[in-house]
Amino acid sequence: MERRRWLIIAILICLAICSSCRELKVTVKHNHKHKQHDLAIYNHTLATILVQYASAVYMSDLTELFTWTCSRCNGVTEGFEMIELMVDVKWCLQGFVGFAANLNSIVIAFRGTQESSIQNWVEDLFWKQLDCDYPGVDGAMVHHGFYNAYYNSSLRPGVLSAVKLAKKLYGDTNIMVTGHSMGGAMAALCGLDLRLTLGERQNVQVMTFGQPRIGNAVFASYFNQIVPDTFRVTHGHDVVPHLPPYYYYFPQKTYHHFPREVWIHTLAFGSFVYTVETVCDGSGEDPTCSRSVSGNSIADHLTYFGVEMGCNESNTCRIVMDPRLSAYGRTDLDGNFVVLRDPSLSVLKLNTDGRDQGTSV
Ligand SMILES: *[C@@H]1O[C@H](CO)[C@@H](O)[C@H](O)[C@H]1NC(C)=O
Ligand SMILES: *[C@@H]1O[C@H](CO)[C@@H](O)[C@H](O)[C@H]1NC(C)=O
Ligand SMILES: *[C@@H]1O[C@H](CO)[C@@H](O)[C@H](O)[C@H]1NC(C)=O
User: pTM score > 0.85 for this model?
Assistant: First the structure.
């Protein structure tokens, strides 16, 4: 037991040293560039807004999503202007790109994969191997499933074309990328992609909720350097951020989260219960945050800031679409569907009362 404790301490010291080297490197690097980055500051209000987008993207009625009239499309997200809605049928993924005037930002949200049961998905997550080299970065590895879901599905071309259109319509604004669970993993890869594609002058913020680990320590460090304005919100005993597992005896060989985690948890003093948001250290694997508790809760995975995450129906990969909406979209050979707002038309207005049942896929 004593030996084990010393090993952990030694590894933590190594990690601390490594992470400070990393920060040093980043600072030195930025001295050559035009702008010095301040450490990103966590904004609670922003988190409670973005979580609503990460929740709404689970809705299966595409017409209601496109016109932003779904049951989760109100409150702080009211007035959101949808630019593009993407559905990848083969991978069972969904995402959208739009403009939020109150944030003065393009908001991009991803839905995770909708497996038949979240339990099965979580169990599979345990066994995911680091089996895919992240291109262009020596030693950076990710899981091929996460990588392909973003880079090899119909979502990436959809996102890139919508961002181009959004910049034409709204000028050079911030981009905020969000998602929950598997959708968080996709949001992270998308944020990284946008920074690499659009260049470092494009402000890209990533905020994910209940996101699994994506890659190894080299990938995490690279990610932090390219997308420093990133927050990974975790909740209580949510099991998903604990997966795929992190083995602290082999910090260079295992999955490793990127920073910065924000852990929402409750503290009880007698009959008083407080909700606390802890902004964690810059290592990505702060042992005093969600790693200090066991990841044994699916219920904690399904609510963030009191907002219901995930699908509210049990059927898998259902798409409900008004036939009139399909006139605005296009379907590719694999059955993937994209609705892109036509900038020459005014905002699409559909009467969502009196419509037909729509089609299910
Ligand atoms: C936090 O975000 C909200 C919503 O975007 C914004 O109105 C507010 O000014 C931000 N607060 C700080 C301190 O940046
Ligand atoms: C991407 O998907 C295509 C078609 O499903 C497949 O042939 C190809 O091998 C995939 N690429 C990677 C890198 O896995
Ligand atoms: C689904 O959402 C509706 C409206 O938000 C709610 O009334 C209903 O109880 C939810 N169903 C489930 C199974 O959570």
Answer: no
pLDDT score of 13: 43
Q: What is the 3-state secondary structure (H, E, C) of 267-282?
A: EEECCEEEEEEEECCC
Tokens standing for residue 347: 């905002």
Which residue reads 């890139």 in tokens?
A: 160
Q: For residue 117, name the pLDDT band (cuts at 50, 70, 90).
A: confident
Residues with CB under 6 A from ligand 2: 148, 152
Query: Residue 69 in contact with residue 198, Cβ under 8 Å?
Result: no
How far does residue 281's CA lie from ligand 1's centre (Å)?
22
The string of DSSP codes covering 3-15 is HHHHHHHHHHHHH
Listed in sequence order, the residues at least 6 apart from 353 whose beta carbon sits closer than 8 Å to its beta carbon are none
For residue 61, give the nearest of 53, 70, 52, 74 by alpha carbon: 70
What are 135-175's pLDDT values in tens digits? Answer: 999 999 999 989 999 998 889 999 999 999 999 999 889 99
Tell me the residue type at 14. Answer: C
Q: Tokens 């036509």 correspond to what residue?
A: 342
CA-proximal residue: ligand 3, atom 3 (nearest): 312
Q: What is the DSSP code (8-state) at residue 123?
A: H
Three-state DSSP at 236 gives: coil
How far is the centre of ligand 2, averaged over its atoms, from the C-alpha of 261 (Å)?
Answer: 32
- Which atom of ligand 2 is closest in space to residue 144's alpha carbon? 14
Strands of the chain, DSSP E: 81-88, 93-100, 105-111, 132-133, 141-142, 174-180, 204-209, 230-235, 261-269, 272-279, 303-304, 307-308, 320-321, 329-331, 337-340, 359-360
